[in-house]
Amino acid sequence: MPATSDPEDLKLVTLARSARARNGAPEGAAVRDEMGRTYAASTVDLPSLRLTAVQAAVGAALSSGSDRLEAVAVVGETEALDDADTAVLADVAVTTVLLARPDGTLRG
Length: 108
Fold this sequence. Notes:
Layout: H1 7-23, E1 27-33, E2 38-42, E3 44-45, E4 50-51, H2 53-63, E5 69-76, H3 83-91, E6 96-100
Parallel strand pairs: 5-6
Antiparallel strand pairs: 1-2, 1-5, 3-4
């Protein structure tokens, strides 16, 4: 994945880092919709509800009325998205995926 200097993409990484840090969660994610609105979330791990950070952020965007997402940033230790997150992003046709380490540096 190439590095980005797009300030809107870097904003997503910052939001994802903040969501992760706020809860001490393993991952944080932030998405941007076609109107430029952003939504951030962290991993949810309850006995009765488990969501990845991507699933939670996409859910927040969709439940707020967004119907098309253009970008996502995921911050955590993982090197790649899992199949469930890849499927969710395909469902909403995300074209830009940024994976970052906990310090915010982009992978790839």
